[in-house]
Design goal:
The protein has 24 helices and 17 strands. By secondary structure, it is an alpha/beta fold. The protein has 4 domains: about 150 residues, DNA polymerase, domain 1 (Orthogonal Bundle), CATH 1.10.150.110; about 90 residues, Beta Polymerase, domain 2, CATH 3.30.460; about 70 residues, DNA polymerase, thumb domain (Beta Polymerase, domain 3, 2-Layer Sandwich), CATH 3.30.210; about 240 residues, Metal-dependent hydrolases (TIM Barrel, Alpha-Beta Barrel). It has a 7-stranded parallel sheet with strand order 11-12-13-14-15-16-17. A 5-stranded mixed sheet has the order 2-4-7-6-5, sandwiched between helices. A 3-stranded antiparallel sheet has the order 8-9-10. Helix 1 packs across helix 7 and helix 8 crosses helix 9. Bound molecules: 2'-deoxyguanosine-5'-triphosphate, calcium ion (2 copies) and zinc ion. 2'-deoxyguanosine-5'-triphosphate binds next to helix 11, strand 4, helix 13 and helix 14.
Length: about 575
């Protein structure tokens, strides 16, 4: 589908027209049209083919002609014209959190800034301060945004790659001669963001496969088209590499292209010490192939236990594999419940009953409702009275027998700037599970935030520390917090660390999970679901947990209800 392409082009036009400044209304009309196309449930090409583009809200005759032109020729004359006139790289700047159309206009007109690099230079030289409406706070925000954009440049959230991967697999499976399709690379290692998608194929008809691949729906650019390797860029911006492997090199190719590079280099060194040579084609002693068809045979031939892809970062997994000390990683099927979820009583989209029905379909044994509390006004946080009312409601649910699982009473209470909680102890003590989270003053100093968090988790009613670092992937960095001090305090108080499964959070991250485990802490993998569909995010939490070397026993919501409750703070 080219919908997303059209959306991006219209947004770009809106910004360029805004900068041009000759028409006040046009830029808004273009953004409005972009928004309604973004929410279309149908392929825009199909609509264009029926001549019904003007039926889309916000799309008039002249805009419909431009969209038509783009769908037919791949470009829009007026946009090309605008780009010549105004050399601002809109898409590049738009990827920087904190930089919107008005800022782009201001920066271009006053400082001639056109792209990430010129913006970075201007920030470093202190040129931004003094511009109309730009204070130190905005400069700091942009400066941080640049770092985030640089780190995340061209990267995609793992969760967003899933539907793309499924589409590619479904299309390639249809092609004659295809015997095996596997996704390798960082996607297979379940990294939280991925750079590109690496597809490995075993086929009898390589040429046919490659021809079909470069013509897949959604391909915007063909970067390479060869007999064994091709690369494309999809309209969504993500790059996909496909490699055809000979059947007797499939395991070696899979091992090689799964990476990480550091892991591969280390495994290759170990092979060399045994007089073996490892490549993407196989493991060889002289000219003889010792292994290559199956991936696990490569590991065993070099004296290593099989290493799950999530561990392959050369962070000690190879040594552990030599000593038969690899963890027995947690799996989704071990999860018995979800301890952090929202409803429409605060900022969730579904009612308690809808959420419970959806959770019951997962065969959970327990499920905790934990809406926001009063100081989080933007999330319509609950007052003490509302929490008490909800406690009675949940008691009734449990005695009704309508849901087999146990519904737990909880709340996600706010950690205030002085380290207090925003709900009284009398109310907290009536809840089964209390999660405490930081949602404000995230720019405080490291010491201040650490003090706040440590004070909060020393409240004897707090069971879990929610999303402990506050990051949003590709959007917002972690707040500064001394996690070692937090872990130490948590251990002394018996508090559990959350692994928040939202694909943008995945907080704690892999390294911090391992550290928490070293401190002897238990983890709760929670979805923080704000709508029914988000209950499925549990899978992403489990992926991250595996990257953090966690076993089922490290995670409290793998335990049966009674044991789980015992692990909570008394
Ligand atoms: P990404 O795409 O940035 O999220 O990360 P990866 O790990 O998927 O990296 P990518 O797509 O560049 O390459 C896929 C795998 O192929 C990588 O994990 C290991 C292997 N690989 C690529 N280039 C090299 C190389 O120069 N040496 C070795 N040993 N392995 C490589
Ligand atoms: Ca990759
Ligand atoms: Ca790649
Ligand atoms: Zn929260």
């Amino acid at each position: 589908m080219k919908n997303n392409d059209v959306v991006q082009l219209l947004n770009e036009m809106a910004v360029l027209l805004e900068i041009q400044g000759t028409d006040k209304f046009k830029p808004k009309a273009y953004s409005r049209a972009a928004r309604s196309i973004a929410s279309l449930g149908e392929d825009i090409e199909a609509i264009a083919a029926r001549g019904e583009l003007t039926g889309i809200p916000g799309v008039g005759k002249s805009l419909a002609d431009k969209i038509d032109a783009y769908l037919k020729t791949g470009s829009i004359n007026q946009l090309e014209q605008l780009r010549k006139e105004i050399p601002v790289k809109v898409r590049e700047l738009d990827a920087i959190p904190g930089v919107g159309p008005m800022t782009m206009k201001l920066l271009y007109e006053n400082l001639g800034i056109t792209d990430l690099e010129s913006l970075e230079k201007a920030v470093k030289e202190g040129q931004l301060k003094g511009l109309k409406g730009i204070g130190q706070k905005t400069v700091d925000q942009i400066s941080e945004g640049i770092q985030l954009a640089r780190a995340g440049f061209g990267r995609t959230l793992l969760a967003n790659a899933f539907p793309i991967v499924e589409g590619i697999q479904a299309s390639l499976r249809e092609i004659q001669g295809v015997r095996k399709i596997t996704i390798a690379g960082s996607f297979r290692r379940r990294k939280e963001t991925i750079g590109d998608i690496d597809v490995l194929v075993v086929t009898d008809e390589a040429e046919q496969l490659m021809n079909a691949f470069v013509h897949l729906e959604g391909v915007a650019d063909v970067l390479a088209h060869g007999p064994t390797k091709s690369s494309v860029r999809l309209a969504s911006g993500i790059q996909v590499d496909v490699r055809v492997l000979p059947a007797d090199s499939y395991g070696a190719g899979l091992q090689y292209f799964t990476g990480s590079i550091d892991h591969n280099v280390h495994v290759r060194t170990i092979a060399q010490k045994r007089g073996l040579r490892l490549s993407e084609y196989g493991l060889y002693r002289g000219d003889e192939q010792v292994a290559g068809r199956e991936e696990d045979a490569i590991y065993s031939a070099v004296g290593l236990d099989y290493i799950e892809p999530e561990l392959r970062e050369d962070k000690g997994e190879i040594e552990a594999a030599q000593h038969h000390e690899l963890p027995k990683l947690i799996e989704l099927k071990h999860i018995r419940g979800d301890l952090h979820t929202h409803t429409d009583k605060s900022d969730g989209a579904n009612s308690i009953e809808e959420m419970l029905d959806a959770a019951a379909r997962k065969s959970y044994e327990y499920y905790c409702i934990s809406d926001h509390t009063k100081s989080l006004t933007i999330a319509r946080g609950m007052t003490e009275e509302q929490i008490l009312a909800s406690i009675s409601e949940i008691d009734e649910f449990n005695s009704s027998g309508r849901w087999k699982m146990r519904v737990l009473k909880g709340a996600e209470v706010d950690i205030l700037s002085n380290g207090n909680l925003d709900i009284s102890d009398e109310v907290l003590q009536q809840l089964d599970v209390v999660t405490a989270s930081v949602h404000s003053k995230m720019k405080d100093t490291k010491e201040a935030i650490t003090d706040r968090v440590c004070a909060a988790i020393q409240n004897r009613h707090v069971d879990i520390l929610g999303h402990p670092t506050g990051r949003l992937l590709l959007k917002r960095s972690e707040y500064e917090v001394d996690l070692e001090r937090v872990f130490e305090t948590a251990r002394a108080s018996g508090v559990i660390m959350e692994l928040n499964s939202h694909p943008e959070r995945l907080d704690l991250n892999d390294g911090n999970l391992r550290a928490a485990k070293r401190y002897g802490l238990k983890i709760a993998i929670n979805t923080d679901a704000h709508r029914i569909g988000e209950l499925d995010n549990m899978q992403f939490g489990v992926f991250q947990a595996r990257r953090g070397w966690l076993e089922a026993k490290d995670v409290i919501n793998t335990y049966p209800l009674k044991e789980m409750i015992k692990l909570l703070r008394k």
